[in-house]
Amino acid sequence: MSKHPAVVPVITIDGPTASGKGTIAHRVAQQLGWHTLDSGALYRLTALAVQQQGVDAFDELAVAQVALRLDVGFQGEQVLLSGQDVAALIRQESVGNLASKVAAYAPLRQALLERQRAFRVAPGLVADGRDMGTVVFPDAPLKVFLVADVQARAERRCKQLKEKGFSANLTGLLEDMRARDERDRNRANAPLVAAHDAKTVDSSCLSIDETVKQVLDLWSEACKKV
Q1: Burial of 138 (0-12, 13-18, 19+ CB in 10 A)
Q2: Per-residue pLDDT of the chain (226 residues; tens, 9 = 90+)
Q3: Where do the annotations place ATP binding (predicted)?
Q4: What pTM was computed for the model?
């Protein structure tokens, strides 16, 4: 019998764009044998669907309706939208920038809230995003706020895009990232902020393995307190 969602453990990993949240969340989940939630993918999928359907991106209710109708699936590395793998498409900067803008819409955030919470199933969940610890899973026993210097984040994103075959300009990425950080921190609905009980991890000078170890060590400490 599956556990009630309220007692299924959750580790939330929040932080700014390109701080490595997704990679760290997946590695931590692999180590623990848990499920993952890439909440940013849901906002990117909404943004992509808005673009594809020609919906007015300034119409908050119309954007929320797109989110409610999303036919989404996650299968390993694949991100499916209406049966099509769009994992590469949703990583384009134009989609990311639109996702950052529409993520400020209260109707959209409400539309996606229960969909995100439904990912909380046994044996556990590692959820990454910007408001996982503050809004979506406020009762999570471990909340991590993952940060990194904006220059380091821009360099990581530039490398990541080039490895996937996209053209990328470091200067442009740095400007976009600073603007996105500003929007995320100052939006009225669920701004990017560390939960009051979050543990901050700075990955600027850490490898992926070192960052994963820090999170797993924090989880071990949290388990001792339960």
Answers
A1: middle
A2: 345 566 899 999 999 988 889 899 999 999 999 999 989 899 999 999 999 999 999 999 999 999 999 998 887 778 889 999 999 999 888 998 899 899 889 999 999 998 899 999 999 999 999 899 999 999 999 999 999 999 999 998 898 888 888 888 999 999 999 998 888 888 877 788 999 999 999 999 899 999 999 999 999 999 987 6
A3: 15-23
A4: 0.83
- CB contact at 8 A, 108 and 46: yes
Any known ligand binding at 195? no
Give 87-110 as a DSSP string: TTGGGSHHHHHHHHHHTT-HHHHH
Please state, in angstroms and as integers, the Cα–Cα distance from residue 41 to each residue in 22, 78, 171, 175, 201, following that order.
10, 11, 25, 22, 22
Angle between helices 106-117 and 60-68 (to 10 degrees): 20
Q: Is 107 annotated as a binding residue?
A: no
Check the annotation: does 12 bind a ligand.
Answer: no
Q: Annotated binding residue at 111?
A: no
Q: What is the CA radius of gyration of the chain?
A: 17
Annotated binding-site residue? 15: yes
Domains of the chain: 8-210 (3.40.50.300)
54 belongs to an annotated ligand binding site: no
